[in-house]
């Protein structure tokens, strides 16, 4: 959404309400079940313009440990100080990129900031439950269903050579 900021810049209004739907970019390993709902406002308090938005989007993915389907609503809050182009130096903007929303030619583009915030804030690993124990590495049975009977003490076959060395050292002693 591109907002026309000229009424606020001229002092004609101190409040701009925001409420729209945005199609977000998909993060790896998850799918959004619809558009992101963006609700917020821009306020002008004695020349200090503040942007405050809440963004929520339904999603579904697989648990990173047990591969069960997981769905939910991901929400993020976005707060920025709104400034006109040329107010801050390029160095100030680069150092504080997450703090400012810049008005270009009387317009404020919200979409890219929202998409970026969603991608950066979305969890890299989604779990069905924090205490999810995952799958048995031998048989693949979900551990939440109980003991599968597989031995937990079997060594990793990639380390078998090291085991032989340790066994040889024990025999020599």
Main features:
36% strand, alpha+beta, 173 residues, two-stranded antiparallel sheet, 6-stranded mixed β-sheet
Radius of gyration, CA atoms, in whole angstroms? 26 Å
Distance between the termini: 75 Å
Largest sheet report: 6 strands, mixed
**Which ranges are low-confidence, i.e. pLDDT below 50, for 5 or more consecutive residues?**
none
Secondary-structure element pattern, one letter each:
EHEEEEEHEEHH
Question: What structural class is derived from the secondary structure elements?
Answer: alpha+beta
Number of β-strand runs: 8
In quaternary terms, these chains amount to single chain
- Helix tally equals 4
Q: What's the domain count?
A: 2
